[in-house]
């Protein structure tokens, strides 16, 4: 029944958000030299800057770094030192250069799915960084296609379905984000296997899909994905 | 004889490098408050930082902005103010938000080529920014495919030829960069139409193709591209 299965990458195949959260924690420590952190709601201010800038920067570590710098300048009333701003640039570089760490059982699960269906990788964010991670992951050979997109919304998935020449009803997407991986695919008539990751970026937590949708399965780990797909038919 | 014609985008279909150069000039003016510009070779230092960082950042305005910040911190001995660093972030945002300005005769030239051949757009750099420019350009409908890649080297073109199911010998690339548009395609056995742009980023000027290659035409403007392609066969 399913012709094609898509896998998300960040926080589905390998760790990502923990590296961003580590950078955010270090960002707070750096700002702690200038501010009373108890009053400043640094995290909310950074999130507000990121939300505003996403229209100009898109997703990814470079835009996040520029948003950290803007937030730091604003929150410190332009008192932050050049040396500390240099450290913020370093936080971005650390994320970009961090070795890929696969989640447990990833290769086995994708390989098992690939025996029954064509599989594609669909990931969003910074093209250069995503390509580097795909290369490093050693998983590229399992996928029929690698698609790096700037946004995972219904128009993007609709375009991909056209390029793949498939009906949404014969496509399932596997990923950790209800907002980016599951909701848009289900809205178009496809299936979703939600594999929650312990931490999720605030902007990825916003979605409008009702709980218990008949075309959505929720599983605890990638190892359970092949069975969940078989249950769809 | 040609099955497919690729067009580069930045500085081939629309202006790009002049916006980066304007940002660089403003960068020098900002640093002029801290340095004797006559001694500092700001431009060379920025280029050295960009060259070093391209392995981590890839191409595009966000990476350029982070490289400007790093260079400014280093060249001023950490004396640059937070307010001035904020201005550098603003320079990057200006490039990203700048309206697309098509070069003269672009739509007519691409449309004429599209009457004889399938045409694709092949552009490198920041996915999010390139997509925004393609959308704004109003040219997307002319192209069979839009390919945004992180590097334009022989392996990238070889992968695209495979995806397009064509021989290199039946492909011609049109662009302003000998290094990214012409040399790798010609090395693989394809054709190139070089349309020089008045200014070229230093890192794009490096190439190893001999002058007067039989599969390369050089034309002064996009309007001359259809005739150059016909001359190839």
Task: Write up what this structure looks like.
The structure is a homodimer of 233-residue chains. With 233 residues, chain A is of the alpha/beta class. Helix content of chain A is 50%, strand content 12%. Chain A is built from 10 helices and 6 strands, in the order E-H-H-H-H-H-H-E-H-E-H-E-H-E-E-H. Chain A has helices at 17-31, 37-40, 42-57, 61-75, 82-97, 106-116, 127-137, 154-164, 178-187, 225-232; strands at 4-7, 118-124, 145-149, 171-175, 191-194, 216-218. In chain A, helix 7 links the parallel strand 2 and strand 3 (145-149). The radius of gyration of chain A is 19 Å and the shape is elongated. The N and C termini of chain A lie close together (6 Å). The mean pLDDT of chain A is 94. The interface between A and B is medium-sized, with 34 and 34 residues.
In terms of topology, how is this protein built?
Two copies of one chain form a homodimer.
Chain A: E1 4-7, H1 17-31, H2 37-40, H3 42-57, H4 61-75, H5 82-97, H6 106-116, E2 118-124, H7 127-137, E3 145-149, H8 154-164, E4 171-175, H9 178-187, E5 191-194, E6 216-218, H10 225-232
Parallel strand pairs in A: 1-2, 1-4, 2-3, 4-5, 5-6
Helix pairs in contact in A: 1-4, 1-5, 3-4, 4-5
Structural category of chain A is: alpha/beta
- Count helical runs of chain A: 10
Order of helices and strands of chain A: EHHHHHHEHEHEHEEH
Strand content of chain A: 5-15%
CATH topology heading of the largest domain in chain A: Rossmann fold
Q: Which percent bin holds the helix content of chain A?
A: 40-55%
CATH superfamily of the largest domain in chain A: HAD superfamily/HAD-like
Radius of gyration of CA atoms of chain A, rounded to a whole number: 19 Å
Q: What is the total domain count of chain A?
A: 2
Mean pLDDT of chain A: 94
Largest interface: A-B, 34 and 34 residues
| Assembly type | homodimer
Q: N- to C-terminal separation of chain A?
A: 6 Å
Q: Strands across the major sheet of chain A, in which order?
A: 3-2-1-4-5-6
By DSSP, the count of extended strands of chain A is 6
């Amino acid at each position: 029944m399913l012709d094609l299965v898509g896998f998300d990458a960040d926080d589905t195949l390998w760790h990502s958000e923990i590296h961003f959260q580590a950078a955010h924690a270090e960002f707070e420590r750096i700002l702690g030299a200038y501010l009373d952190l108890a009053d400043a709601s640094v995290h909310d201010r950074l999130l507000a800057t990121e939300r505003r800038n996403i229209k100009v920067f898109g997703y990814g570590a470079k835009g996040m770094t520029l948003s950290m710098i803007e937030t730091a300048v604003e929150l410190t009333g332009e008192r932050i030192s050049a040396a500390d701003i240099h450290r913020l640039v370093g936080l971005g570089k650390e994320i970009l250069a961090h070795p890929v760490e696969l989640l447990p059982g990833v290769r086995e699960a994708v390989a098992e799915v690939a025996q029954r269906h064509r599989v594609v990788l669909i990931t969003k964010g910074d093209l250069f960084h995503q390509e580097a991670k795909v290369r490093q992951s050693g998983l590229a050979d399992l996928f029929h296609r690698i698609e790096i997109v700037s946004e995972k919304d219904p128009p993007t998935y609709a375009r991909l379905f056209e390029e793949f020449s498939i009906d949404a009803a014969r496509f399932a997407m596997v990923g950790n984000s209800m907002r980016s991986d599951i909701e848009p695919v289900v809205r178009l008539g496809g299936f979703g296997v939600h594999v929650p990751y312990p931490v999720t970026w605030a902007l990825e937590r916003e979605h409008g899909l009702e709980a218990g949708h008949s075309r959505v399965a929720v599983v605890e780990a990638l190892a359970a994905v092949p069975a969940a797909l078989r249950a769809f038919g």
